Amino acid sequence: MGRNKRANNKQNSGKRSQTGGWKEIEKENLKWETYYKKQPIFKDDEEFETFKKFCKEGLPLTFRFTNGNNITTNNDRQKEILTLFKEKILPNLHNVEYENEIIPAPVTIPWYKSDENDDILWQYNISKTIIRKKDQFKRFQQFLVMENVLGNIARQELVSMIPPLLLKVKPTDRVLDMCAAPGSKTMQLLEFLHSSEEATGFVMANDADFKRSHMLTHQLKKINSPNLLIVNHDAQFFPKLFLDNDFKNFMSFDKILCDVPCSGDGTMRKNVNVWKEWTIQGGNGLHQIQLNILKRGLKLLTCNKYTKDSNELIGNEARLVYSTCSLNPIENEAVVAAALREFNSDPYNVKRGERIRLLDSSNDLKGLKRVDGIHWWKVFNREAEELAEYDENSDKCVKMSKSMWPPTKEEIEEFKLERCIRIYPHLQNTGGFFITAFEKYKVGEENAPKRVKLDETEDKEEEQVAAVTNNTTEPNLFIFLPNDHEVIQAIADYYELSSSFPRDTLLVRNASGQPIKSIYYTSPIVKNVIQTNEQRLKLVFAGVKMFIQQSAMKSTPENNIANVTSRFNWRIQNESLPHAMKFMDMEKNKLIFRTTDKEFVKLCMFHNFCRYEELFKIDPEFKKYIENVNVGGCAFIYFDRQGSETDIKENLMFPVWLGKNCLNFMINKELQQELLCKLFELKIEAIKALQEKESKQAKIKSALVETETQVEATPDSVGPVIDEASEQK
Ligand SMILES: C[S@@+](CC[C@H](N)C(=O)[O-])C[C@H]1O[C@@H](n2cnc3c(N)ncnc32)[C@H](O)[C@@H]1O
Question: Does 181 contact ligand 1 (Cβ within 6 A)?
């Protein structure tokens, strides 16, 4: 059986017709074929045919092991889930037979490594349809789905992972992702930023489309990075930002990703509609906006400084990566060449001694098969007429620009477009992609980089940007709490948080500026960026939810908590617990109950309302503990797993809500599923059935609770995170 049969994904190859039947999209497009055959991209017709054959096939499955949803603290997560995959899942994927052929097992991709692990990226040449059909894949599929929901595995097209890798993000970098939605590359940028324990930089993810910037929020909030900001600007006019209230010097970005909107003809293996919709005008029409975004990125990029004598870089390297999922030179080399030409001849840049150039990436990503960028190409108008040169007075050049044409001989020498990277589907069975890395540089600075003084009057581009990005008048919904706020004080006292707990980076997301429902935390630099640029930034999202006011909490005579103060009903969100734990004395904190008993944890995790009597039977120590803590508040069960035999080796701590007679584990459904699967080897179907049953019982119980005025918190209140909109009301 050929690759075609296995990897072809029927799900993506058609569209419902109006009569409701399934209509195959024909994988042919004569305009596309003629256009690409005329470009100097493929060696000969034979190579084009191979390329086309691959374009018609579905993509193999690729998946990457990430550092999980506690991106700031959980560095062992990647190793742990990877080991689980290699020991428990992978052996079942060897020698799988389908239609009398053995499907080769997944293989690792050598050019994607983390500091700790060499084999974090895997490729499996099999379609989703077969995976769903065949029982042998069931466990593998469940594993992928579950770990993906939990943020431990990222499902992303192989070639789409290259641009963030070439940016070489460090934990100290200020990173801007100019066109970020849906966010798969931003996710990688955050992984790199958090590759060491203390990230002092940040990632700002931007998208011009309001809805898509919210989609970005949905994708990225699950990884809980306090160093992330999501904003909503047109990248062509991305505002200049400042730090530390120093309004004389603008803040430049050390790493910028320009993954611009494009015709997407490198994605036709996945998006079959490209076959139907591809036109010459598609690429031509995007050229100018792509160039504008790239030029704006280059403007905002930190300038690398080199010593005069030895030409050595002073300080860290800043870079910008430009990428598209298109193979069209008009969207790629033409944009890159135009940016080089325009930037390096702009009097403003010349006066400041700043230039840009392409970086040589040939030694990066060893093992990745690639082709050099091209120096010339053919330009066609929407009528498919080949045009030798630009003529602004000609009707044939309507809606075209001079920058679409190839560079001159001298420019070819200077631009080094061969440094661009082209990836074709047939090179290593992937989608198509174009990537190149730029640097902005200045020679002759002996000392540490100086900040650039603004001189707006000489800068034409800034005038344009200022005209578009008038100060935002929207109310600020991201308000930092004063560090002596009484609620913060009460929370710190209740949880016995040490004096080093950072109280000054806690914020609320409502116009009143008071902690109504949730309190979030950010990194110090994110706070700085938000506060200094309140008037300039259209901020959509920042902050990791840390404390939540438990709404089910009411004070009644029956539950013995008649005089509850606010401190009792603020619980710690599970995802923020590892961060909070850094400021707790794990030995002495009286809210922590330690257990090594798997059965104890199992019982707690199995039931929404786990009765104390049952737990006392398993561990009599728990009775003493309960007598010493406040009923009606949040506490913790610490599962000490040293020397444990099961898959998860790390110790686990869970927030629990202590009711009068029973407790609730305050973890979400997905984590509950993962832990029940891994710790107790339960089948996912059984867990889901159990969750449903418990949820029904919880509802009945809640109703009873109302009538009996016996207050308990239900894990339903943990469930879906309250969205900002509802909170802002
Ligand atoms: C190729 S996609 C980006 C994919 C993304 N980098 C990822 O890996 O998930 C291009 C994105 O650019 C956004 N976009 C289009 N025009 C834009 C503009 N002028 N400024 C900023 N974003 C823009 C689109 O909404 C779209 O989400």
Answer: yes
CB 212 near ligand 1, within 6 Å = yes
Cβ atoms of residues 134 and 96 within 8 Å: yes
Alpha-carbon distance 433 to 264, whole Å? 9
Residue 545, strand partner residues:
520
Give the residue numbers spanning the domain of 598. 588-728
CA distance 311 to 298: 21
Evaluate whether 611 touches 660 at the Cβ level (below 8 Å): no
Q: State the Cα–Cα distance between residues 573 and 658, nearest whole angstrom.
A: 15
- Nearest CA to 166 out of 185, 140, 138, 194 is that of 185
Strands 634-639 and 592-595: parallel
DSSP structure string for 26-66: P---HHHHHHHHHSTTSSSHHHHHHHHHHHHSPPPEEEEE-
- Ligand 1 centroid, distance to 204 Cα (angstroms): 14
pLDDT at 675: 80
- The half-sphere exposure of 642 on its side-chain side, counting CA atoms within 13 A, is 3
Residue 322 CA, ligand 1 centroid: distance in Å: 12
In the chain, the number of structural domains is 2
Helices (H), 152-183: 162-167
Residue 681 domain flag: yes
Q: Which residues pair with 258 in a beta bridge?
A: 322
202 CA distance to ligand 1 middle (Å): 19
For residue 561, what pLDDT is reported?
40
Taking the whole predicted model, whether its pTM rises above 0.90 is answered as: no
Q: What is the pLDDT of residues 474-503, one digit of tens each?
A: 667 899 999 999 999 999 999 999 999 999
265 annotated ligand-binding residue: no
Has 185 been labeled as part of a binding site?
yes
Tell me what ipTM this predicted complex has. Answer: 1.00
509 found inside a domain: no
Q: Average pLDDT in the 161-167 region?
A: 98
Is the CB of 321 within 6 Å of ligand 1?
no
Contacts of 83 by beta carbon, 8 Å cutoff, 6+ apart = none
Domain shared by 456 and 593, yes or no: no
> Does 235 sit in the ligand 1 pocket, CB within 6 Å?
yes
Do 458 and 592 fall into the same domain?
Answer: no
Which tokens in the block code for residue 431?
């989608």
Q: What is the pLDDT of residue 458?
A: 57
**Average pLDDT for 26-49:** 96
DSSP string covering 358-419: E---TTSSTT---EEPPS----B-TT--B-SS--TT-GGGTT--GGGSPPPHHHHHHH-GGG
Last residue of a domain, one of 441, 467, 493: 467
Side chain identity, residue 398: V
Q: What is the CATH number of the domain that holds 237?
A: 3.40.50.150
pLDDT at 473 over 70: no
The residues annotated with a catalytic role in the active site are 325
Q: Do residues 669 and 650 make contact, with C-beta atoms less than 8 angstroms apart?
A: no
Residue 138 in any domain: the answer is no
Q: Is 182 annotated as a binding residue?
A: yes
What is the spatial distance between Cα 226 and Cα 506, in angstroms, rounded to a whole number?
Answer: 10
